[in-house]
Amino acid sequence: MKRTLRSFLLSLPMLLLTALMLTGGSIPREPSRLAALILTYLFFNTFFFLMLHKGRTDRYRAVLFVTYSVAFVIAFVSHLVEARGSMALTEANMIEGETPFCHVVIPMTLIPAALTKTIIFPGSITGTHASIAGMFVLWIGASLALGRGFCGWACFFGGLEDGFSRLLKKPLIKGIRPSWSYLPYAVLLAVVLIAAISLSPTYCMWLCPFKTVTEYVQVTSVKIAIQTAIFLSLFLGLVIVLPILTRRRTQCSFLCPFGAFQSFTNKVNAFDIRIDPDRCVKCGLCTKSCPTFSIDEASIKKGTTRLSCMKCGKCVDTCPKGAIAYHVKGTQLSRGILPRMLFLYPAFLFMSIMAGRQIQDAIVRIIRLVTTGSMI
Amino acid sequence: MGVEAFLLGLSNGAICLAYCAPVLVPCLMGGVGASGLKSDSLVVLRFLAGRMLGYVAFGVIAWVLGHSLTRMAGLQEPVVGCCFLILSIFLALYALTGREHTCAHSRVTALALRMGASPRLLPGLAGLASGLNFCPPFLIALLAASRPGTLQGSVFFFLAFFVGTSLFFIPVPFVGMLRRFPSVRIVGKMAAGIMGLYYAYTGLTMLIGGLRTL
User: Fold this and answer.
1) Would you identify the CATH topology of the domain A270-334?
2) Cβ neighbours, 10 Å, residue A285
3) How many other β-carbons are positioned within 10 Å of the β-carbon of residue A90?
4) A183 contacts in B (CB within 8 Å)?
5) In chain B, where does DSSP find H-type helix?
6) Positions of chain B with pLDDT lower than 70, given as ranges
7) Which residue has the higher pLDDT, A64 or B177?
8) Residue A333 backbone dihedrals phi, psi, to 5 degrees
9) Which pairing describes strands A216-217 and A271-275: parallel, antiparallel, or unpaired?
């Protein structure tokens, strides 16, 4: 009883903060929107309470994270069909700057912006859904608050492969060579350099697997057909099949240039994951469970994770000896509640800000589908 | 005329660097052997020497073709397409060098091992292949070089232009210092392979498109 009361008191500030964030200062009058708001609010806060009460992070984060991604796809695609009549992006849409800006483009825009003072993306700087300036502000905030934790708590694509990676109890493919985990850095280097020459967001045009579930350029030529085939293959391979077979987030681990870019922000972020060498019994469970290959023998020896850690908390939950914990840089390694709470609050709040609207919108559209037969 | 070409090179050097960086940066990052400013400077110099040869070759071609830019323009796509294909082969081989089992095919492995044993040639050849390129600053230089009317004038113009652009490459050897981290070498090799794929695609489409219009 005492423990429950303590967990409730600790989650009280989150109850207030999420109320502010999800309502945006006003309660909707439309019944379906009101129902969506209440459901989302209860959903988030129940899971936050459970995180604190049970002392487990990843188990509850994963449910929210997967829901967020599925809701994002439902809301985004419905929104596109409502606005344009299809998921396809026409040349006219691009010329008019109607392409929603996604965080993955950010690293590709930096060199061309410095050289030519232009943003190489057919979107709008401000004022529209997913504007360029809005996404930059979110990214800077997320980098400072979470570092690469963005990929584990706020990326609207990550939940899809996270969900698929949990379908099987044991991986069917094991023993992946660790050197493959450097591939996203190579992809990052290549797409940034090519974007600087071609002044176009190369990754979005050629490699983004998530075009499959968001928007794609209308197929009007052989080149676009090839690009679409690549998107589909990468989605099937890296977001569905390999995560199921390996129980890892393979798109994040082997392809995503934004993830690689975001890894460097782990250096400036205040939080990291630490491994207590005195408690560690070298059972290897953390290495096996890490979805992004961020723990290996060398990192265990150093008592920390690799740069690519996205702070999902899976290793913290998995460790049978409690040797792994959230940690605030510059402080003593402790098993107390404070470092975990200090990380969980910004991470969870960020997720609720990013996911809240998407989940509400998806619920409204599902209610509309049930009652009218159409999501639009 | 020399000063004009040098200034033209200076004003376009940043773009030249941006065009050469996709080849040069992965090569420096994934390079074989210990990192060091001296050895990395030599890699850049070899690359620049290859690039200079490419420029001189273009100076000669511009003169041989009777300074006719329209005739050059017709050849642009297939010539650059071929250069990009050659460049993609260099990059692919570079990505594969230094590995025990490059490929299931023994000849490819043997070739990669041979190139790995003498990697000095690669930067120069890559510089030559990327020098034979109609990047925007190069087209400006080509237009200007067609004015002198003599072989020496045309070649001299390209050489002065080359010197102007090369000043921007001075900081590049410092990229090689990252190589002391083993992971950077792996990333460099992988990036070279990806760049190879990019140039292979670009080269093929340019070649096919160019041959169609000829």
Assistant:
1) Alpha-Beta Plaits (3.30.70)
2) 16
3) 15
4) 190
5) 2-29, 37-64, 69-96, 106-117, 121-131, 136-145, 151-166, 182-213
6) 1, 31-35, 62-74, 97-121, 133-149, 214
7) A64
8) -70, 120
9) unpaired
- Reduced to 3 states (helix: H, G, I; strand: E, B; else coil), residue A120 is coil
A88: β partners: A216
Indicate the residue of A182, A189, A223 with minimum beta-carbon distance to B26: A189
List chain B residues with CB under 8 Å of A179: 186
Residue-range domain boundaries for chain A: 1-64+71-85+336-376, 87-269, 270-334
Selection from A199, A94, A226 nearest residue B204 by Cα: A226
Convert the pLDDT of each residue in A176-220 to its tens digit. Answer: 888 899 999 999 999 999 998 888 899 998 999 999 998 888 888
Q: Considering chain A, what is the average pLDDT of its residues? A: 92
Which residue in chain A is spatially nearest to B191 when comparing CA positions?
A186
DSSP three-state, residue A271: strand
* Cβ-Cβ contacts under 8 Å, A189 against chain B: 25-26, 29, 187-188, 191
Number of domains in chain B: 1
Q: Give yes or no for A207 touching B (CB within 8 A).
A: no
Domain containing residue B168: 2-213
Q: Is A226 on the interface with B (CB under 8 A)?
A: no
**A342-359 pLDDT per residue, tens:** 999 999 999 999 999 999
Contact A299, A306 (CB under 8 A): yes
- Pick the residue of A177, A179, A197 with the most B CBs within 10 A to test the interface with B by mutation: A197
SS3 B128: helix
Q: Coil, strand, or helix at residue A138?
A: helix
Partners of A111 on chain B (C-beta within 8 Å) are: 18
